[in-house]
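May I ask for whichever protein you like with its backbone structure tokens?
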Amino acid sequence: MKIPAFCQLSDFGPEVAGSFVDSMLSLGKYCRQQFGVETFFIFPERAKNRKWLSRFNDCDFPVGFVPAKRNVISDVRDLLKEYDPLIFHTHFSQFDLSPLLLKFLYFRHSKVVWSYHHSLSLTTKQRIKDWVKINCLGECFVDKFVAVGDAVYAGLLNAGLPEKKIALVYNGIDVERFSLNSSRSSIRNHLDIEDGSIVFLLLGRNPFIKGLDIFLKAAEEIIRKKETSARFIIVGKEETRKVISSYIKKADGLRKVIKVINPVDDFSSLLNAVDVFVSCSRSEGFSYAVVEAMAAKKILLSSNIQIPVISGLHGKAEGILVYPTEDWKSLSELMEKFLNMETSKRMSLGSANYAYVKNYFSVEIWAKKMGKMYHDLSKN
């Protein structure tokens, strides 16, 4: 007799696990404990040697790998020889179409779920592709679309999907992993951060989308006004470094106050070393990093984009200071406001952010919602 299983098919393979892996593990454990159903995790071959895979092995979850191509029907079927897939759930779009054919050819009883982690594209060409995919294939053959944020949900509705086909399920994080502080002073020493410095952090791996130019202009305005204790850390790789290097040629004063670092395995430790998390994003589906920073009791300076912690079902968190998207002068003013803020006020706002995330965005809440959706789909 074959083993009933929920199949997670994810185009995910970065060096750093991030909260996506926390979510997958939490959901797998929940389904095992609540329903007695295993979860089979399938990743692209580029994920084979990632350190975070050991966490799946430690939990005795079956894991398989497929080539990074859209048609992985035979590969997935071979991996599932001993399993009865009750649900195929895809993430990050690369493998979306294969479960439809797997269901049609081999697993007629299986349900198909597509998760949308990002807003739909704004380009005309991609909008047409999205419309065809969603309306000609998805609406007919996909049982449920999962939107991770309000902007994603609105985009799916605007694409023509009926409301009953879409589930709005905000992503969740392991709150305690980010609330446990390691030694702040040792991490700051490692990063060469001077005593008394106030550190603003930006994740800038996709420079335009993440608004790196906005962050740099705001930082330049801060140091132009007067001597400041502000320091600016930017996380990114080669593309990010090129943008910063080019900008600093025209704003040499930034050279002494900006530090660029590569992505780190332990993001919680990096958050412990900084004082403020800055989001300059021009668009976002759901930002794990934003919620992680809030769990670490950091104040958030954010562009006014449609993300759950600003415009979602639970209202805006108290410790988020919002500025108009792309308005670097307003961002600079918020930075100045934080620099002049009393320590007690900073701590109060940071604690409010932690409580907000714990109440609404824990990975346990997310797993319970997803598990209920799986259970309901499996019964039909």
About this structure: The chain has 16 helices and 13 strands. The longest strand covers residues 83-91. The mean pLDDT is 90.
